Amino acid sequence: MNGAPTSEDSDSWVTLAGRNPVGNEDALFAIPLAAALADPSPPNERNAYPFAAARLAQAFLDPARAPDLAVVPTPRHFRPDHGGHLGEHGSLDAVQSRGPLILSGAGVDARGVLPRAARIIDVAPTLARLCGTQLPGRRASGLDELVTPGARHVVALLWDGVNCSDLLDLAGAGELPHVARLLGRGLALAGGVVAEFPSVTLANHTSALTGVGPGVHSILANEFVDRPTNRTVFANDETTWHRACDLLRPGVPTLWELLGASRSTACVNEPVDRGADYSTLALVRGSGSGSGAAGLRHMLPDPRQDRHADQHWVAADAGYAWSAQVDALGLVQMHQLWDEAEPPYLTWWNVVGTDAGHHAGGPYSMQARAAMRDADRRLGELLDVIDARRLSDNTTIMLLSDHGSEATDPACQGSWSEALEHAGVPVRDAGPGFLYFGG
Ligand SMILES: [Zn+2]
After folding, report:
1. Closest CA to 206 of 231, 224, 187
2. Residue 6 is assigned to a structural domain of this protein
3. Which of 43-52, 98-107, 137-146, 401-410 has the weakest average pLDDT?
4. Cα 200 to ligand 1 centroid, rounded to whole Å
5. Closest CA to 168 of 141, 191, 143
């Protein structure tokens, strides 16, 4: 409830009745892949919730936007009113929250897969440190000892919504050869990078690029209520993505603003772009498109001509085809940036097709894996450019996701809202699962 959980230390929490439902905070739960497949999308009593106390406490820090009650859906929960996806994320549990995290190249020792995890709020301080500066008031990052600053270039690749264990398993089996190239010159965390709660896209992109949780940067969820204006904000929408930074709490700097003029920066297809020297979505804002990137689709490459895109899924799924177009344009921009006489010091590339494949097919599906292979082929082209410029030994590369993906069960449905309405409690449900009482 709003105002109750203020401590990030779970030992200080009090269980009012029954057992603590988020008492298991094992960050290495359901690892390796075989363990997740043996008990897919487990119920609460067999599940784990990494950093649960800290992630729940932060969700209530903004009095203007925090919900009165946050519902934590089970991983099986199927939501036909929110897309009806076979793969889902947003929950607090380990697999929905866990994206991969790989560090590679300059300043990174080849250490294979390490039995540990990081948090998405570790990403910004780590990138800041690699760029020779420090986030103000930063907490110690679990990544500090894994990478040494000093490279001439830093590249961060966010593959949206990838299942961590499946990515590492496919790379180990030779099915993602360019992810394997990264691993051959670096390391991965078996426990990956754990999203903040809720484990949804824009909230966690923002956490990755500000170093603070959604309750601090105030882009709380995909949807939330802004109490002072009494409006429901639909934050994660392709028609408004280019305006995402307008929703940031005043005074919360982005990584790009922190670096300022000290380092040249570029962010490709990333909504959290305020302060970057180059930004795709700044170009969208400059275009005057009233519906943002959605209104510019006619300018994107034809996915049927894209040799990196799986043509079966391009033909079968309009969402997959749209994502392939966005990612193809991402690769064009990466070429342009890295063909410059001096490429950016820090380049960030957001890849969206992986999330589309995981949502539509569910994790471990043919479609999710096809999306990862598409992303891997585009990664290979980028790595070839870096190699051709003889910059591989001077470039640190990070690959991460903003959250994980877990299989839903179409038989597992239902809403808390009807019960609350029957009980006579007027409530507004944003998020979904972020409940604001009083209607
Ligand atoms: Zn996402």
Report:
1. 224
2. no
3. 137-146
4. 6
5. 191
The answer to whether the CB of 407 falls within 8 A of the CB of 360 is no
Is residue 26 one of the residues assigned to a domain?
Answer: no
Let me know if residue 61 belongs to a domain. no
359 Cα to the center of ligand 1, angstroms: 10
398's enclosing H/E stretch is strand 395-400
Q: Rounded to the nearest whole angstrom, what is the distance from the C-alpha of residue 205 to the centroid of ligand 1?
A: 8
Computed on alpha carbons and rounded to an integer, the radius of gyration of the chain in Å comes to 21
Domain assignment of residue 268, given as a range: 94-407
The DSSP element (H or E) to which 435 belongs, if any, is: strand 434-437
CATH number where 399 lies: 3.40.720.10
Cα(226)–Cα(244) distance, integer angstroms: 14
CA of 202 to the centre of ligand 1 (A): 7
The answer to whether 234 touches 264, Cβ cutoff 8 Å, is: no
pLDDT at 2 over 60: no
Cα atoms in the 13 Å half-sphere on the side-chain side of 409: 12
The total number of structural domains in the chain stands at: 1
Residues that place a CB less than 5 A from ion ligand 1: 160-161, 201, 355, 402
Tell me, in angstroms, the distance from the centre of ligand 1 to residue 383's CA: 23
Query: Per mean pLDDT, which of 2-6, 132-136, 278-282 is the most reliable?
Result: 278-282
How many Å lie between the centroid of ligand 1 and the Cα of residue 255?
Answer: 19
**Strands of 67-214, DSSP E:** 69-70, 87-88, 98-99, 101-105, 112-114, 118-119, 153-159, 186-189, 193-194
Residue 349: name the closest of 329, 319, 368, 363 by CA. Answer: 329
Model pLDDT for residues 17-55, shown as the tens digit of each residue = 999 999 999 999 999 999 999 999 999 999 999 999 999
Whether the CB-CB separation of 203 and 221 falls below 8 Å is answered with yes
**Rounded to two decimals, what is the model's pTM?**
0.96
Q: Is residue 54 part of a domain?
A: no
Residue 90 alpha carbon to ligand 1 centre in Å: 9
